[in-house]
Design goal:
The chain is an alpha/beta fold. The protein is 36% helix and 17% strand. The chain is built from twelve helices and 14 strands. The protein has helices at 20-34, 72-89, 103-106, 141-150, 194-202, 206-211, 228-238, 252-260, 279-286, 319-331, 337-348, 352-368, and strands spanning 2-6, 38-44, 52-55, 58-63, 95-98, 114-118, 135-138, 158-160, 181-185, 213-217, 243-246, 264-267, 290-293, 310-311. The strands form two sheets. An eight-stranded mixed sheet has the order 3-4-2-1-5-6-7-8. A six-stranded parallel sheet has the order 11-10-9-12-13-14, sandwiched between helices. The protein is globular, with a radius of gyration of 21 Å.
Length: 369
């Protein structure tokens, strides 16, 4: 089978600047090649990456893109030029996977393969424009509900297939043998609940703050999706010596090492109409961290609260209090091993070859039609 993957205009592949979608589809493309298929991957050219190369059997083509911005109209106008460039170099294929906004609208229905739209963000009114798409694939049941709600009639094109774990590290350190560290990895941004986490942390007993430390790892710069300098200053002003803020880590080995140095992983996202899956949580679970997450619906697909981690209760306005309660309970627990083992078992269900097989089965089903 010939498969083309067209990423959006703003991040490169390999994911040198991060990006859960870019990370997932790089891993899936390589899994498709291992399964005997031909894969072309088109993404943004930047950061010294060559215009064309092969990585693990995947043929990478790169074209000029641009940086993301907060203005939605400007964002869409930047992407349309990228998509138009991509159209000029698209090879003949059976399946064209894309999450670029304009591609399902501007591309012919079958010329470059059946259009397989990956809906990696909550929809904002565009689903009705994607009449040429053969499939509308979503990563979680929460996004499936949102997409279905936008379509006027029940649409059998909507299908949930989760993100895969982009790595599988089998060298697990027992959670009790790790430093007493609580870790967050993700954008340092207001919608991620970072400020509420720091405030909850500072309300912990003083002895607990001295015994444990909190590490926040991720981009704070606005051009990288962070909250910018003003928000970083606010977080720093709230913290103390037990709170560390670390620059983003995009190198896989370094990220795995970070997960394996933590006992607890906290992801308190408040992005009620933005968080679609929570890949960072699953990555941390695969390394044996015990997760605490907010009550967002997307986490329900793989989080069984009280078994493989904790989903905090309560409404968004009470996130700080909820985090404080769950942090105290978990950090006082002398035996986190049962949580850790269940987290690892859950993560194994999302290993890349297993998820890739779900996609390939769906591709074959669509080709048969």
């Amino acid at each position: 089978m010939r498969i083309t993957i067209l990423q959006g205009a703003f991040l490169p592949v390999p994911p040198l600047r991060g990006g859960a979608i870019e990370k997932a589809w790089q891993a899936l493309g390589e899994a498709f090649v291992r399964a005997g298929h031909q894969v072309t991957h088109i993404s943004r050219r930047c950061d010294g990456l060559p215009k064309e190369e092969k990585i693990n059997g995947v043929h990478h083509l790169r074209i000029k893109g641009g940086d993301a911005c907060s203005n939605p109209l400007l964002l869409k106008s930047r992407e349309i030029f990228y998509v138009w460039q991509a159209r000029k170099i698209l090879p003949p294929a059976d399946i064209l996977v894309t999450h670029a906004f304009w591609a399902p609208i501007l591309f012919p229905q079958e010329k470059f393969g059946k259009i397989y739209v990956h809906v990696g963000r909550y929809p904002k009114g565009q689903m009705g424009l994607y009449k040429k798409a053969t499939r509308l694939q979503v990563p979680s049941r929460a996004v499936e509900k949102a997409v279905s709600k936008e379509l006027s009639v029940q649409d059998d094109r909507v299908l949930t297939i989760p993100y895969p774990l982009p790595f599988a590290d089998k060298d697990i350190i027992a959670v009790g043998d790790r430093p007493k560290c609580v870790l967050y990895t993700g954008r340092i941004h207001p919608e991620k609940g970072v400020l509420e986490l720091v405030r909850a942390w500072l309300r912990l007993p003083e002895a607990m703050q001295k015994e444990w430390n909190l590490r926040l790892v991720g981009p704070w710069r606005a051009e990288q999706g962070g909250g910018g300098k003003d928000f970083l200053r606010k977080v720093l002003a709230e913290g103390n010596e037990s709170v560390e803020i670390i620059d983003p880590i995009f190198e896989e080995k370094e990220l795995i090492a970070e997960y394996k140095k933590a006992r607890v992983f906290v992801y308190p996202s408040k992005a009620w109409a933005g968080e679609t899956f929570g890949l960072a949580v699953l990555e941390a679970m695969s390394c044996g961290c015990v997760p605490i997450v907010s009550s967002l619906e997307c986490f329900a697909d793989f989080m069984n609260s009280g078994i493989n981690g904790i989903r905090v209760k309560g409404e968004p306005g009470h996130l700080e209090d909820s985090l404080l309660n769950e942090l105290q309970n978990l950090l006082n627990n002398p035996n986190l091993e049962p949580f850790s083992k269940q987290a690892i078992l859950t993560a194994q269900e999302y290993e890349v070859d297993r998820v890739a097989a779900q996609f390939l089965a769906d591709f074959n089903k669509l080709m048969a039609k």
